[in-house]
Each structure stands twice: as structure tokens, then as C-alpha cells.
Amino acid sequence: MGVLWDFLRGFLKEFWGILCDTWGPSPATQVPLPPRYSPRYVEAAWYQWWERGGVFRPPQQVRGPPQGVPHLSLVLPPPNVTGSLHLGHALGATLQDVLARWRRMQGWSVLWVPGTDHAGIATQAVVERWLWQRRRQRPQDLGRAEFLREVWSWKERHGDEILEQLRALGASLDWSRERFTMDPGFSRAVTEAFVLLFRAGLIRRDLRAVTWSCALRSSISDIEVEPRVLAGPTQLSVPNCPHPVTFGVLVTFAYPVEGDDGLEVPVATTRPETLFGDVAVAVNPRDPRYLVRGGANRGGGASPGVTGVSHLSPGAVKVTPGHSPQDLALARAHSLPLLSVIGDDGALCPPGGGWLQGVPRFQARPLVVAALAQLGLLRGVQDHAMTLPLCSRSGDVVEFLLKRQWFLSCEEMAREALQAVTSGRLHLVPKFHEKNWKSWMENVGDWCLSRQLWWGHRVPAYQVREPPGAPGAEGPWFVGRSEAEARAEAAETLGCSPGQVQLQQDPDVLDTWFSSALFPFAALVSLVPFLVSPIPFFVSPIPFLGSLVPFFVSLVPILGSLVPFLGSPIPFSVLLHSLVRDSQGRKMSKSLGNVIDPRDVIRGATLQSLQFPRGIPECGADALRLALSSHNVQGESPKIPQKHPKNILKIVSPVTPLDLWVLSRAAAAVGSCWAHLERLQVFGISHPNFIFSEVSKASLQVPSLRPSALATLLACAELGLRLLAPFAPFVAEELWQRLPRPEPAPNTICRAPFPEPRALVSSRHVAARGGSHVVGVVSSLTVLLQCPEPARDWLEPLGPAFQTLSGAGPVELLPPGAEPGPGWVGAPAGSGNFVHLRIQVRAGPALGAGFGFPSFPQ
């Protein structure tokens, strides 16, 4: 950035008068550029100026974008409102902003909607900690209504930090359409989606084993479960446990067979505290060791029966349906009872042993092992490799508890989402993610929507307290957009008046992912008539960016495929980008302490750490954006290309062959840049690959060539800044505003036409090939770049260029095969060329140079 700044500053300082005489004065301020590039100076005011000018708002008619104008719709995957963004968020926002700015400069109508997610579990946990640290209060001390007021107050105090970070990054979002997933309009859209899915038979209430965090006292999503692989005994800290807990140990104990003295069935488990919930011992009926009478009852709740399961390998396993999804399926297949012996808080509860009631599960574990040993039933304790499920939100060990919850059937929708990819209606970029997509969709299960929290979208389901005529009975459930709607439906179903129906709303809230997956629809489409300012941008293909976690991205087409209010095919493409990791390859996480705030890179920060012992120097938003966009986000080898705009020949006239070569290199860069952006390969075009300052310096030193070289340099600088604008908008705007331009011109580079490859100087242009050959020959002396060889005739008018670039005296061209005579030293110069230098014994540069050229193919 500093090199570009210094070059253009010197260029404008030296040639400003000549340029203004030709092009007219710049529309921007005439204040000289600072002597050194300063991100803080450049980025201080441009964003506010863009916002005030409505640069980021799409031109539109009442019902959407102007007719005949291509349009692009983007939604910012809503970050959690709980805190600040890290470099992973900055990567996603930068990629989207490059696409938005690129299309906007092409004349497209671009809508990019910002938003934040209420982040149910994360936000409630943060506020709970804040209340305890500041006031020594818990949510139960306040009650639900007062606690929610505290959460909203916390959100108002801290929620704007994320928006400030996005502005500092230069994200060109339409802030007039900012959404928050707990806004009234958005909440109505979430309720509408739930009601429609329920009435379509896709949501139902059922008793199942759910993933549960005892620390949070709530069910959690499968995506919030992190498997921890243990090679053997490992001590881990668990929330609410005073001492570390040892995992990776296998306990073997015996179940005596009732009625057969001396016969026992040994079973092994890593969870001995759950044996009170065992309802059977499953054995392989073909195993001769277990040819006993199976199916015995529990014997008054003291011991499980023996069940034959033919698909099991030899041996026996305990069946605990209350704490294992696999055991639950087995128990239901064999009509076994269902028992839960661990409560919501992780403590043992009936029908567990009364002597352990209320004891935390991991404190009960050694007590159970000791009791087995005392009874003579313990058969061994050994090291055991295992995978331990941990809650990513709380660090707690995940339990599987039997709970009645609301579940969304995803099988049919996942099938539709998979078919959308295989048929090409939904595009994944890069394509190799289709294999992961197929695996994900073929193994998706029903989705538990219930969360036992207070902060979130309340489940719009109501239970009849006491059905008329059946006092004390558990009433049925009714779903409605409001309590009045649910009461009316209940009255009609029960055959009574609405006044006789007493309802109680489900205290649970919906999984945050449910509203997050609806964000593209609720932000871009009118789900219900009363949503504010709907625009049908969503009906056309949109690039949608996500990280390499397919969960959120997959939920969008899952919900969008069957929700009736959409009424259109799956409407988007998906760019999956890689995660930003630290130097050790770890995902950025607050718990690991490796999260970097983008503002620390933009503004600089004093950090005393291993990575930054002297702090982070001020880099600026543009440098951060260029660094992020150069990252190989698609897992493929990046390349280095770029692009260009108008017909250079119309701007620069007359031009020399060397100028044409410079312009042809810009044209090649334009074509490469365009191709990469069309393929969403942002990382391939973030570095300039046409450098003309050194070549142009040569022409600027020759008075007769100066006007042409100056015009060429100005054209390339102006077009190069437009190329740079999507990637580094601040410095591009600052410098572009100071360049003189022909009228009429847009008032901001954001609205300037993006360079196009059409009508540019082709590398096949004869004169351009001559200039290419000049650079090729000179590169043997100055080590510039290699170019294809031209014919002899192309080189004859380029003698002054050779002379200036080489620092030699008069240049002579020798016919092929001719000898230069005595006093000359020659050497190959590439492409069959030879360079001859006249040797003279005196101080100073060489006085002359002769070039011998062989015959060239035409």
C-alpha cells in the first residue's frame, strides 16, 4: 500500500500541471497527500461519506430492482450479538464485500442485508455471568420478564460493537435494512414458519433422547457437540465439579442371572453410574455362553432381563434407553421400559438408588464402583480409548436424556436439498463440497427445536391446562400465531367455548439455528403481510457465503425447500470458505485465547504475547482486506490475476509500441481478473500483476515520448485503482478522487464502471508484441520479466527505449549473422537474441550497444 501511495504521490506532484491542462482539475480536494501512507488518515471519513450518499442502497422500484437491471442479493450470515467479530468473520465479510462492490461497479442493483443473531444460549450465558458478577443475582431471582429486560438492556449497550467493526472493515452493507433476529417483525416471521411447518405435519412433539448440557440445563444442537478423543485415562475439569474427573476407564461388572445360581453375564461400561437405568442385557443368541432363558422381568426393579439381539457381536452389553439413543431404539424395538436416572442438573434421581439421590453423576461414579466391589460383582477396571462428547458452549460432558420436545422432521426436506445439488439448482463452490453435502443430507435426523432457555423465540405452542370434563388430566397441545388463535382452535377441537379453555404456553424457546436458517428468507422476502419494506430480490440466484461448517448453510435449503410461502425453487449458490486458524492450525476460539479482533489489525494494538511480542502495528482496513482476500479460501492453489476497463486506445492517442505493450499487459490482467471473479475465486485476483512504473519511467525521461507515456501511465493508474476498489476501497477512493478525469465522471469510485476485458489492447497486437520483446531483452540486464519474441521490423522504432532502459549510448541494429567487429563483447539475451557491449577503458557508463538478431518466425 505504501509503495502505491509513494508512487502516485510523486507522480501527481511532478506532472499535476500537465495533467490538469489536458484532463481538467480533479473534482476532489486539492489538499496534498501526506508524505507517508497513513491508514488512519485515508480511512477516517470515506465510509461515512459513502453512507450519507446512499452508495450502498440499491436503486429500486416499488416492487424491487429496476426492470432489466441484473441484481445481486446477499445476506451477511448473522454474527452472534454476544461480543465482537474475529478474523473469521472478517474473512467472510471481505469476500462478500468484494463481490458486492464488483457487481455494483458493473451497474448491478446490489442488496446486501446486515444483521445480528440473538444467540440464545451464548447471550443468556453472558448475561447470567454479568448479573452474578455485578449483583450476585441469578435469573430465577429476577423472574422471566425482568431477566429478559436485562438481556435487552445488555444488547442495547453492547450490540453496536459488531456493527462498528463491520464499518471499520469497509463492508458496503445497506444499513437501512439491518435486521436483528429478535426484532418484532423477524419474530413474527419465525412464528409463521413454525406454524406452517406444524400444520404441514413436519413438526411434532415426541419423547426422545436429546443431547443435554447439565451446566446449561438445556438441550443443545448436534453441531454444538464437540467430540474429544481420549487415548486412555484422562482427567478433565467439568463445570460444577469440585475436582477433575477421570475419563477413559472401562468398568466391567457382572449381572447374576435370576433363577440360575452361579451363572452371570459380565458387561462393560464407561458409565457405571447409569446402571440403575439398565432395563436389559443384550446378548447374541448364537453365542453359546448365553444359552439361557432370556426375557426375564426386572424382578421388582432390581435387575434387567436378558434380550437376544442377533446383529450384536459376541459378548453382552447393558441396555440403558434413558441415556443412549442407540439403546432407546433397541428398547422400543423390544418393548422394554424406559428409565431415566440422571436429572436435568446432572444429579442422580429416582429410580436410582435412594442412597445416591441428589449426588452429582461424576461424584456418584466412584461410589457405584465401590459398591459393586463390595457386593463382589466388580470384574475389572482397565484403560480404554474412547470419544467423549463435550458441549462447545459450556465445556460440560453431554448427557442423553429422555425429554418431550418439539422435533422437525428433516428427512423429506434433506432429500429435496440433496436433489437440488445433484440437479444443479443449488450450486456449491468449490464443487468438491458436494461429497460432504451428500454425506450430510443422507444422514440427517430429526431436529430437536426446543431449548430450555428464557432468551429466544418462545415456542408458539399452548397446552390446555385442564380439558373440560377431565380435571387433572394432561391436556392436548395447540399451535397458533397467538394465544387467541390457539384458544379458538382448541375450543373447536374440544367442542366448548373459547372462554372455557385455559392455555399455558410452552416455556421453552426455539433453537437459535431455526431463526438463523430463516434469516435469508425473513431478510429478503415478505414472509407475512406485515413485514416492513419487502423486496423480492431473493427470487434470483444469490451467492451465499458460509464457513466450512455445513450445518447453517444446509438448513437454509432444508427450510426453504418446503415452506409454502416461498413458492419458488431453491434460489441461491453457496460459496463455502475455509476457517481462519492460528499458527498451530487451531480454530479461533475465545476459550483458547487466540481470537484477534479485526480492529486490532486495522488500528494497531499493544499485545504482549508469543505471536506479537511488540504488539500489532497499524495496518489499516485495506491491508487486512487484501491479506484476507489473498487467502486460499477454497482449498486450491491461488493464482495471481487482475482486470481493466474502457478502450484504452480511445483515451491514449497517439501511443508508442511500448505504451501499447503496457496496455496489453493491463488487458491480460483484466481478463484474468474477470474470469476469477465470475468463478467466485476472490483469492486469485488480489495481487496486481501489471507493473508499469519502471517501464514508464523510461519514456518519461525522453521528451519526445513523455506525452504518450504520461497519458498511458495516468490511464493505467486510474484503471488500476478501479480494479483495486473492491479489494481496498479506502485507498482506491482517496487516490482516485485526486486523479484528473474527463467529464462526466461519477462522484465516487464505488459507482465508477469496473474494468471490462472487451475492446482492450490485445497481447496479439503487433506493436504490443514489440514492446514485449523490448522488456525481454532488457530483462537480461535489469532482470525484469520474460516476454515472447517479435520480428526484427518491430524493433527498429524502439531504439530510444532500449537506450533509455539500458543506460547505454546509441543503439545499433545488426543484420542477422553480421559480426560487430573488434571491441565488442556479446552474450545471449534470451529468445535467440544477443547483446553486444562496446568495451572502453574509461570511467562512466558504456557508450553504445549493438544488438544482433537472428531471423524470427513470422
UniProtKB/TrEMBL annotation:
It is an enzyme of class 6 (ligase). Its EC number is 6.1.1.9. It catalyses: tRNA(Val) + L-valine + ATP = L-valyl-tRNA(Val) + AMP + diphosphate. GO terms for biological process: valyl-tRNA aminoacylation. The keyword Cell membrane does not apply. SUPFAM superfamilies: Anticodon-binding domain of a subclass of class I aminoacyl-tRNA synthetases (SSF47323), Nucleotidylyl transferase (SSF52374), ValRS/IleRS/LeuRS editing domain (SSF50677). It comes from the Eukaryota. Residues 46-633 form the Aminoacyl-tRNA synthetase class Ia domain. InterPro entries: aa-tRNA-synth_I_CS, aa-tRNA-synth_Ia, M/V/L/I-tRNA-synth_anticd-bd, Rossmann-like_a/b/a_fold, tRNAsynth_Ia_anticodon-bd, Val/Leu/Ile-tRNA-synth_edit, Valyl-tRNA_ligase. Residues 659-759 form the Methionyl/Valyl/Leucyl/Isoleucyl-tRNA synthetase anticodon-binding domain. One of its GO terms (cellular component) is mitochondrion. Keywords: Aminoacyl-tRNA synthetase, ATP-binding, Ligase, Membrane, Mitochondrion, Nucleotide-binding, Protein biosynthesis, Transit peptide, Transmembrane, Transmembrane helix. The chain crosses the membrane at residues 513-532, 544-566. The keyword Mitochondrion applies. One of its GO terms (molecular function) is ATP binding. Belongs to the class-I aminoacyl-tRNA synthetase family. Catalyzes the attachment of valine to tRNA(Val) in a two-step reaction: valine is first activated by ATP to form Val-AMP and then transferred to the acceptor end of tRNA(Val). PANTHER family: VALINE--TRNA LIGASE, MITOCHONDRIAL, VALYL-TRNA SYNTHETASES. This is Valine--tRNA ligase, mitochondrial. It comes from Catharus ustulatus. The lineage of its organism: Eukaryota, Metazoa, Chordata, Craniata, Vertebrata.
